Amino acid sequence: MAPYFVFPQNLKSLEEENDDNRLHVLNPTDVASLRLPEVEEFVKGVSFDLSDKEIFCIEEQEVFDNVYSVVKGFSSLTPSGKVNLVESLRSNLSVLLPNVDSLLRVSQGQDDDNDNENEPPPVLDRVSSYRNALKIYTFFLFSIVLSEESSASSNNKTKMTGTNRKKQLVHSWNWEPQRGRILNLIANSLEINLALLFGSTDPDENYLSFITKIAFGLFESATLIKDSETKDALCRIIGACATKYHYTAQSCASIMHLVHKYDYVVTHMADAVARAEKKYADGTLASSLIREIGRSNPKAYVKDTVGAENVGRFLVELADRLPKLISTNIGVLVPHFGGESYKIRNALVGVLGKLVAKAFKDFEGDVSSNSVRLRTKQAMLEILLERCRDVSAYTRSRVLQVWAELCEEHSVSIGLWNEVAAVAAGRLEDKSAIVRKAALNLLIMMLQHNPFESVLDGLQSDNETYDGGENHGKEQQESLTDSVPNLEEGIPQKDSSVPDIGNLEQTRALVASLEAGLIFSKCVSATMPTLVQLMASSSATDVENTILLLMRCKQFQIDGAEACLRKMLPLVFSQDKSIYEAVENAFVTIYVRKNPVDTAKNLLNLAIDSNIGDLAALEFIVNALVSKGDISTSTISALWDFFCFNISGTTADQSRGALSVLCMAAKSSSGVLGSHLQDIIDIGFGRWAKVDPLLARTACIAIQRLSEEDKKKLLASNGSRVFGFLENLISGVWLPENTWYAAADKAIGVIYTIHPTPEILAAELVKKSLSSVFICSGGDDLQNDIESSSADILTTVQVARISRYLFVVSHVAMNQLLYIETCVRKIQKQKLKRDKLGANGIKEDDTPKDNINAELGVSASEEAILDTLSERAEKEILAGGSNEKYLIGLCAPFLTKLCRNFSLMQKYPDLQASGMLALCRFMIIDPDFCDANLQLLFTVVESASSETVRSNCTIALGDLAVRFPNLLEPWTENMYARLRDPSVSVRKNAVLVLSHLILNDMMKVKGYINEMAIRLEDEQERISNLAKLFFHELSKKGSNPIYNLLPDILGKLSNQELKRETFCNIMQFLIGSIKKDKQMESLVEKLCNRFCGVTDTRQWEYISYCLSQLAFTEKGMKKLIDSFKTFEHVLSEDSVMDNFKSIITKAKKFAKPELKLCIEEFEEKLTKFHMEKKEQEVTARNAQIHQQKISGMEGCAVARNEGEVSEGSDIIEDGEINDPSMEEIAQSSDSEVNRSGEYSGTSSEVTDMESDGTEVQSKVASKSRATESKAKVESCEISSSTRRSTRSKQKDRTLE
């Protein structure tokens, strides 16, 4: 019998001799030293022996030595030699495997024949040979795999030149298929019945340990397991060894090692475990791994973050593949929810999600097992709900993601649905953006997969579902907010399988389902205010997902979704491209349909219901969509049909809305309006304008948006008619008062846009308006009455007509100014164009003299002439010529006198609003007029009773500051004072105006910025948000001006009567806008220095609070420690000390060991000084109390003495007793007591012992001083008692 084979530690170990009868190499051949022909001949001989002889020939010493030699020198073999050797070994092993089963049948037959024989059956020898051959073939094949993989990895690391790469390709052989075949063959060898070969159901440990060691080692190669055939073979090998042959403990340890170390093996290891459980119907390996993870220390995963993540992924993969098995072992993992590693908690949450979704489906069992199953599932769901409040934002986010997955798989019951919805709605206000994103996605998923589909008859995402049919529109009205009867009517139409209502139990279930659906709808509807806030979030993901949720809510007709989507429109101006694209996509999805009529109707309804801000956003979107072609020409045609009343049922409002959308589209496509000029005039200024007065205003906008060619056509064909309409609109009285101003504004603008000589027509309009005012009275009489503050004249002249006249004259003046600027720009463009054309040479008409003058600068430049002319033209609007004033200038004195008549203005606030608006416009035009009336303007803006007047004047101040900054600079404080106005609108406009001026560098940040800081805590949220936006944008300018302004703001806010909470919130926000470490470190020093010049305890507290809000660095802490002398005197205050403790607590978190030691010493020093200062305060207070008591006692004694003296004045006059020594003792004792009370080193406690005496307990460093102090107090007591005894004796003598 041949020697038995034992797996060595490595291939070379086979050459070592051993004492036992073990197969080893005796005569190895050094293949590497042979020549190439000799190597090929040697390999052919080995291959011939393996193929020609029996499969047991590998046991023969010569064959064994030769095979060992070629395997050892495998890297030196030629490609053909490698192929021959591998094929020979593999074919022999593949032939050996089926013979094992036949050997089993033969052995059973021989056992029956040789029951009585003593000699061992010959089959035992064959079994030993089979076992040896199996081991040897397995060993040599594995050795070849290791050799090739080692050489392949070394080749990958070596950088080859082009020549070497070509040589490598010539001499290379295709190893990957061979590797897969070898490993699959070895896996097959493990799956046959090896019980006969090894004498038991499990092979010997040497065999299993060798195979598993090689298999797990190969798993460490990321490139190797990318080959699916190789990976599957390794999974089969590991599964067979660990499960079939019970090599579980060692396999578990190796699997956990690989999972901890390599993230790319996680999925493949989970596949191996799942395949083993499925193939052998044995979950021992999976259970052992779960128990191994459960027994691990949760604290170990805190530092090993990579291992924690890999183990977590492995658990989730196992739960996905083996849900029922994992559900029976989940109890050992639950304690890890209390661990500090959020990655493990995330994984466990994912595991629970997989188990809830998969582990409890198709469960067969009795009633008790079903009850246990339901309780287990309920416990898992409760854990998932509890984890929504996890301390880690990552875990909270992961839980919400799991709930979304469960909703998508319809694994959440109706009974739990609303509880999950409430949790998701609450997480919308989470401080973490990733949690908010997950909550938004969860609500989207819950709406999309809600169990109330028969109730929530929502709109489908396909645009075809947005057809405008009436029947379909009625179906869309069914929503969660409908009443129960309506819902019951809708259910049979949706699902014919609804149970019979007559059955009481089914009816109850139906009602319960409807109630749950209604609660769900209300829950989602209640989130609308939060969603509006999220659309203003700084996080783009918040905005994008909020828009998606609102789209889904709109599809299901949730209450408030439509209004919230309207607030989405201003987001098109966002600088974030993703937000703009989200808004645009949502707009197209909701409002742009395949039916052009429906699209037109949606757009015009938006235009009708939108405010000014939404109209601007709508115009921006419409322009973009027209440019892209998303709003087609058919939609434009449908809009014209609505405007022209070609569609039945069209109202005047819809016609106006259609024209508004067409005006928006005209910005991108100038020819949109040109095809319907006559319709614009006939409908816009015709009878329909009286039905909807704003239609005339919209028609004016349309005329202004015409292209230059269309304007010329309009002037040629209908010019006089159009101007007649405009003149009638401005001077007529057929428009309502609230609409006339808006229409007249646009009408005057049209005149200055298309009229060739607009100033002539405008002058006629001013004259007509003036004549309408003075139709009942002369102008001189009116001015005289205004100067005399008489309001009687207004009984005959309507206030409304004066207001209209002031509006017309001021608006004409403003448009005249704009017209002059437009003319100047046209001339400049013409000059620039002419300069470009003549840039290549000198013009023919240029003379040498002109060229010389141009070089010397003698001739006046055209730019200077143009500037002079424009200034003169602007000046003439109000000031007129040198000798006379023109039409508008004549109105200026009248307007000034009118606005100065405060009694008249107070009586007619509407007239004051018009007058002040006209005055502000005149001031914008002329600097002299502005300077003369600034005092009047600020008087009105501060004292006017009308909120509208103050608000308009505040806005006008911004325009004046832009046009005449030098004139407004002395009034800066008055402008900031508008931030304190009691009116909300005035404060809001003041914030907007100042923000615009400061952020655009039109106004310097003066020392009144603290007024803007106070608006951070304004009672109106809108104003507070505007102030926050201002400081946020201000922090982006330069090197962050807030850093320089912060000390000044702190000082001024500290002196104002602000609530502590308000002050803290303001400073916290401002300090939070400072991000640079250097600025933070400098602020530490600046704030510490402020302690020196402050004596108010409240300011100490405020400064220390600001220090506690700084983001300290190592340098910052060192500066704070070095500045101890500046704030040591304020440490007696508890609130100040609390703020310093907060600084120390935060500093310890980031401090290095050396700095941490300094911080601890600093903390001890702070505590020590705090206690000493407290003791000094107690000492001073007690000394003061003691002094007051002594003074009180002496006062009583003096009072009694004076009484006695008055009673016995006769005796005292005869013989007065006076002891000078006693008086000196008393005086000295009083002075000594005062000085002892002032001594700062003592800590005294005064306790009342008796009514006639006081005990003084002193704790001092010097015993002699304590004794001296006590003696002085006793001398004081003696002197007082001596005086009392003397006075009593005198009284006795008197009585005698």
Automatic annotation (TrEMBL):
Q: Name one Pfam family in it.
A: Cnd1
Specify residue ranges for compositional bias: Basic and acidic residues: 1265-1275
Which residue range or ranges hold the Condensin complex subunit 1 N-terminal domain? 83-249
Q: Where in the cell is it found?
A: Chromosome; Nucleus
A GO term from the CC aspect: condensed chromosome, centromeric region
Q: Which residues form the Condensin complex subunit 1 C-terminal domain?
A: 948-1108
GO MF annotation terms = histone binding
SUPFAM superfamilies on file: ARM repeat
Highest taxon of source: Eukaryota
Region Disordered: list its residue ranges.
458-481, 1224-1296
Keywords in alphabetical order, please. Cell cycle, Cell division, Chromosome, DNA condensation, Mitosis, Nucleus
GO BP annotations, alphabetical order: cell division; meiotic chromosome condensation; mitotic chromosome condensation
Instruction: Spell out the Polar residues composition-biased ranges.
Output: 1237-1246
Identify its protein family.
Belongs to the CND1 (condensin subunit 1) family.
Q: So what does this one do?
A: Regulatory subunit of the condensin complex, a complex required for conversion of interphase chromatin into mitotic-like condense chromosomes. The condensin complex probably introduces positive supercoils into relaxed DNA in the presence of type I topoisomerases and converts nicked DNA into positive knotted forms in the presence of type II topoisomerases.
UniProt protein name? Condensin-1 complex subunit CAP-D2
